[in-house]
Amino acid sequence: MVALTLTHGDNFGACVTVGGLGLVLGHGMSRFDPQPGHPNSPGPGKRPLHNMCPTLLLRAGQPILALGGTGGRMIPNALFNLLAHFVGLGATIEEAVAAPRVHTDGNLDLTMERQWPDAETQYLKEVGFNVKLGNNANVHALSVNPKTTACRASAR
What we know:
single chain, alpha+beta, four-stranded antiparallel sheet, three-stranded mixed sheet, 3 helices, flat
């Protein structure tokens, strides 16, 4: 099994190539927050937030799940949502991929998919979150039954 994230963002990353090699440099600096004093502001020894989280899930040393996604900074939250359903709730891969997702950048702003239950959305608003409805990352998943080696794939 292989899981990977290949991204250069829009417009070919930094739009800079390495002379003689034709390699296009990434756009990681664009992920820093330009506001001084923000936890994600540029500074010595700091690394920007990123969306690179291709995921392999093993059980007893055997791969049972490979995940990847598209959608920039929404990818980590989308993969976590899928893992919470698949591992935590015992959902099938199809159910986990179909489940509604929520995105946060670690503050009080939440972006909920429209399928999220209204009662839960309302509760989050009542306790102080700034909730808006919107899209989430696209996730691609492949699961393998270690006993039968049957594979199942799902994407959304």
